[in-house]
User: What shape does this take?
Amino acid sequence: MNMPLKEVAEKICELCHEFHNHEVPNMRAECRSQCFSTDKFRTCMRMFTSAPKRHNRHSRRNVWKF
Assistant: This one.
């Protein structure tokens, strides 16, 4: 694994640990295990890769339309 990519993976695990350490005390270790190839790492990745859905004002129905 190249160094910049490893640093990003480390940061993902660190932030994921901060969010979940009350539920999973070893989150950082579980995230990093097997060179960042576990389900825990993939779960953490999804926290940062799924963009929030933006509300599209044009897709709303106008409930006041007569």
Summary: The mean pLDDT is 81. The radius of gyration is 18 Å. Residues 20 and 27 are 7 Å apart (CA to CA).
